């Protein structure tokens, strides 16, 4: 049986070492709350709403790699594929909030929701106002009729971009910030495909395995079951189905302006990713959908999973204005 290989130190100390790596990589622009495994940017101004995220390690650069100017402001790091605790979230919020309120922005997973909700209740007792947006962009995780049950995956990067621009540059108040990020969330859709699984640092087994000639359409970023498994086929055929599903879901229509994210889930080669990117452009052009901006690379990973996801965000004038403002983070710069 094939065994996973990882270049780590102590498998039980991964998130602490990830935090230390982030601090070094940010080169003076990031502060760690080491006892609580949380980090925040040194850019936060006194007149802004603070945007806080958090989630399990293993998806880098999501979540903490999007801290920075034009991005989010702080992040609580959970263990690999595990939610951060209320203590982490509360300490981070107290260290960063400036009296203007805090937006919690994270993926829609039960553990994250529970712990952020607990944190919000405790913070409210100390007169710290919070609002919450849960990213729900994964179209394979629930039907459109149950949109609020959908998981958050790579599309959260676009929400970070909108939230950071609105809070830092345009000084939206908490309610207006909540409304614009909720609007962005309603207009983001993602679907993923896996060629092979991944393994937790402490495990000698992959969390799922596919046959040599098999792929899985609709895979989740923790290995959650997708829509179906099928025989390996061409890149063009896979991408066409993914674009069809994405466009039918919102729907995306002729004349729409969209931002496009082609995300490497971990181990796919850049060669494959650019072949995929080519077909995404062809399919959107054939539909008369205007690609306002295209991002290609590692944005929301799943350890060493081999696969990719495609995300589309439909723009209106407000979202485009905010999206076009600059962003300087470890995971994405524009």
From TrEMBL:
One CC-aspect GO term: cytosol
Pfam families from the UniProt entry: Dak1
InterPro entries given in the database record: DhaK_dom, Dihydroxyacetone_Kinase
Molecular function terms from GO: ATP binding; glycerone kinase activity
Protein's GO biological process: glycerol catabolic process
Keyword Nucleotide-binding: yes
Keyword line: ATP-binding, Kinase, Nucleotide-binding, Transferase
Limits of the DhaK domain: 10-332
PANTHER family: TRIOKINASE/FMN CYCLASE (PTHR28629), TRIOKINASE_FMN CYCLASE (PTHR28629:SF4)
Name of the protein in question: Dihydroxyacetone kinase subunit DhaK
Source organism per UniProt: Gilliamella apicola
